[in-house]
Amino acid sequence: MVIGDGILTPAISVLSATGGIKLDQPKMSDEVVVLVSVIILVGLFSIQHYGTDRIAWLFAPIVFVWFLLIGGIGIINIWKYDTRVLKAFSPVHIYRYFKKGGIEGWTSLGGIMLSITGTEAVFADLSHFPVPAIQIAFTVVVFPSLLLAYCGQAAYLIKHSNHVVDLFYSSIPESIYWPVFLVATAAAVVASQATISATFSLVKQALALGCFPRVKVVHTSKKFLQQIYIPDINWILMILCVAVTAGFKNQTQIGNASGTAVAIVMLVTTFLMILIMILVWRCHWTLVVIFTVLSLIVEGTYFTAVLFKVNQGGWVPLAIAAAFFIIMYVWHYGSVKRYEFEMHSKVSMAYILGLGPSLGLVRVPGIGLVYTELARGVPPIFSHFITNLPAIHSVVIFVCVKYLPVYTVPEEERFLVRRIGPKNFHMFRCVARYGYKDLHKKDDDFEEKLFESLHMFVRLEYLMEECSGSEISSYGQQTQQSNSEECPPNNNNSLTLSSIVDLTISSVGSIVSAESPVHLSAQGSAISNRGSHSQNELNEKEFLNSCRAAGIVHILGNTVVQARQGSNFFKKITINYLYALLRKMCRENSVIFNVPHESLLNVGQVFYI
């Protein structure tokens, strides 16, 4: 729904702002106003790839001046036409309005939802601004200015009841009409930019959580990580936004559509907040009940009112939300089924060990980076690869890129490295972990950090063996009984960079403590073991460097997913057609990881799920 609102907000904001031209030029047709709005929208979406970093400093002054203007105009109209409108702040008039209007008064609420549209963008802004900044800005500037503006328009209507259609521009004093028109247009562009940026942010988070097809994400700012640009989504938003603007041609139906979207967004947000209060904040049940009752009284009333506007434009956000929901559901369903198939079909460690150090093939110089979604085990694509090709690289690293449901992963905890099989197999696993706000680009910097983590893993592995006096097996367990009680135990050979410092200090401390005269023989043994381990460590590092110099090949799976025979009709449609179509339309893994074509090797395989 918020993504759908990202389409409707630019349309209604720009169309309502440019509609002020007709007040000065009454003979101008609606088609001309729509054409001007479309030109502004096309220009707005066309400059998205430049990013907002260079012009973002203008946004706050424009919006601040805009609120000061509408608040000031509201004060002028209240003082000039009728100060009695200030009685509207009394809650008694809510009761009188519904008593007098009855059902018509209730259904009329669906037509005034535009007065609170835009507040849903606060949820997206929480990822860009701190909470106190939003609270202060809303209570000190936004809310008072809106109240004064609406009261001023009400006072103007008391004297000019025939200006309902063009109320906003008609209530502006003639001396400042054109300056206000320019500021209104600029504010509409800023509001549109805010919703477009929020849509990019939501799509990127859904993408990181595996709920959206793979699309290209471009970071437009070196200073602000949140400023991103998604080309595919940008042009889709532009086409839909232009279609809505040119299709409806008036603000009323677009307003009904936007009001429907906002009402549903607020209602869903309230239900999610209830879950957070119960499961996360552990609030007392009385507080949850009070919050639920008060919120649903207001939002439920508005929601039931906008249902009467569905046939008057309110169906648009429902259709857009349904389309995006189907896309996200099908992609997530197909991805989960494909992952479950890979987990079920992964190669056992017994099979790898049975192949021997050469894996039953010719080991050629170089490093093979095998990309997989499995964080444990050997993917089935590897067995498919070695079954059809007679050679494999001297060093094989299974690279698994995982996006975690957290904001960011610290750099020192980015990589998890683990050895697969004995040391003479030269097989490793590297899990690269990212939060949904982290920047991931498969480039030289990524490779450099990967091999740096690999070298540190080898260093720590030999340091632990040196400390314990035994060898660490591929399963992270010692092959001999350790004689050193001071060394830190470690039954898991999956290491992060953050653990290296602590383990290194404790290991070195254990070795230094052996300098006591009582343990001279143990010291001599430790020095001997340390020398052999250091030489082995040096040899393996030199071997890794030589293999890296020989070349790196990126091995990616190009799998085709199909439903098994006998699957139900829904599953066949979802997997064989919808999911297959999305996989063809989305960006390939080689593009996402920015893998150079000259070192890319695709391995095809069919998965029946």
How would you describe this protein?
The protein is α/β, with parallel strands linked by helices. It folds into 3 domains: 2-313, Amino acid/polyamine transporter I (Up-down Bundle); 331-343 and 553-608, no CATH class; 345-550, no CATH class. The chain is built from 20 helices and 8 strands. It has helices at 2-18, 21-24, 30-46, 59-80, 92-107, 121-125, 131-159, 167-170, 177-208, 231-248, 251-279, 285-306, 315-344, 349-355, 380-388, 444-468, 497-513, 520-550, 569-585, 589-592, and strands at residues 218-219, 228-229, 362-371, 391-404, 415-420, 427-435, 552-562, 600-608. It has a 6-stranded mixed β-sheet, sandwiched between helices. A two-stranded antiparallel ribbon has the order 1-2. Strand 5 (415-420) and strand 6 form a beta hairpin. Helix 1 packs across helix 3, helix 4 runs parallel beside helix 7 and helix 16 (444-468) runs parallel beside helix 17. The model is unreliable at 472-526 (pLDDT under 50).
